[in-house]
Design a protein that fits this description.
Number of strands: 15
Distance between the termini: 11 Å
Order of helices and strands: EEEHEEEEHEHEHEHEHEEHEHE
Helix content: 10-25%
Shape: globular
Length: 310
């Protein structure tokens, strides 16, 4: 089968496109014929060696996938060949930048029916990150207020939609190029971080500060003043510490997204109910994935890119 893999840690040039052996499902696994995989920043980090996730080489990237079940291993119940599914694959194992991939049976859920199957690859890990950041770590409840820093990215737009659905007041920072998208996602107040003092623009403190952006650590510490006493600061930027304020009881939480089949199925239902929009900005063929990694290394990627094996 065709696949992208790398046999050593390094720059985008270590990614090789070619033929590798098609895997066979073991007990408890299914094999998926890939419709699409999604590119994530963590794929770049694992390939470059600065994200501490233990992978075996050679490694096939792409842990968010959509496709159809092609074969079923022993002991798998409730999953049939031909079923359209999505999955958040274990990040340390081979991913979906290929024509086929193995998935633990407990990692797959039925795909949304209201959007193209390929586009559904854009949902799993980023939507789960938004949910876990807001509700599992941030403990947000209806009627509370959240400040989302860096809301113009993919996770941010999911976070806005999920927070608004939970009756949370959303204040979001964005740049001029993403303000319209953040507004469309439903933010109640949008602050242009390129020309506005964030703390000065707030009309009161928030219950939760969610940071999704690689901001300056000193600036991040200053933003803690926006959080009420006893509130929570949540961050998805695991490469830097999350600041709090012990004197005011402001807690800190850092999100490392975890697979959650039940939650992923719930997110699929929200998509099919029209309560959650899946956005795909680009679609590229599998052979162009190395070039996409090179583009990502320069920080020029905006929005969600999915990779089509055909």
């Amino acid at each position: 089968m065709k696949a992208i893999q790398f046999q050593e840690i390094g720059g985008p040039e270590v990614l090789q496109y070619g033929e590798i052996e098609q895997p066979a499902p073991a007990a408890g696994q299914v094999r998926l014929r890939i419709e699409a995989s999604a590119f994530n920043a963590a794929d770049n980090g694992m390939r470059a060696g600065f994200l501490p996730i233990p992978i075996e080489l050679p490694h096939v990237p792409g842990y968010d996938v959509s496709g159809t079940i092609d074969a079923v291993g022993a002991g798998v119940d409730g999953l049939a060949v031909g079923a359209p599914v999505i999955a958040f694959l274990p990040m340390e194992r081979d991913g979906g930048a290929a024509e086929y991939v193995l998935a633990p049976a407990d990692a797959v859920v039925a795909a949304p029916t209201s959007i193209p199957l390929a586009d559904a690859a854009a949902l799993p890990s980023v939507a789960l990150t938004a949910w876990q950041a807001l509700f599992d770590e941030g403990e947000l409840e209806a009627g509370q207020r959240v400040l989302i820093v860096g809301a113009g990215g993919v996770v941010g737009k999911y976070a806005i939609q999920l927070a608004k659905r939970a009756d949370v007041h959303v204040i979001a920072t964005a740049s001029p190029r993403s303000i319209d998208a953040v507004r469309a996602a439903g933010a109640d107040q949008i602050i242009d971080h390129t020309d506005t003092d964030l703390l000065g623009a707030l009309d009161g403190q928030v219950d939760v500060l969610l940071n999704l952006a690689p901001i300056d650590p000193e600036q991040f510490t200053e933003y803690v003043a926006a959080v009420r006493d006893g509130g929570i600061v949540v961050s998805t930027t695991a490469f830097m510490s999350t600041p709090g304020d012990d004197t005011r009881g402001v807690q800190t939480r850092t999100v490392f997204v975890l697979p959650n089949r039940d939650r992923l199925a719930q997110l699929v239902s929200l998509v099919d109910d029209g309560a959650l929009t899946v956005e795909v900005t680009r679609r590229i063929p599998l052979a162009e994935l190395p070039a996409l990694h090179a583009e990502a290394s320069t920080g020029r990627i905006s929005g969600k890119v999915i990779v089509i094996p055909a």
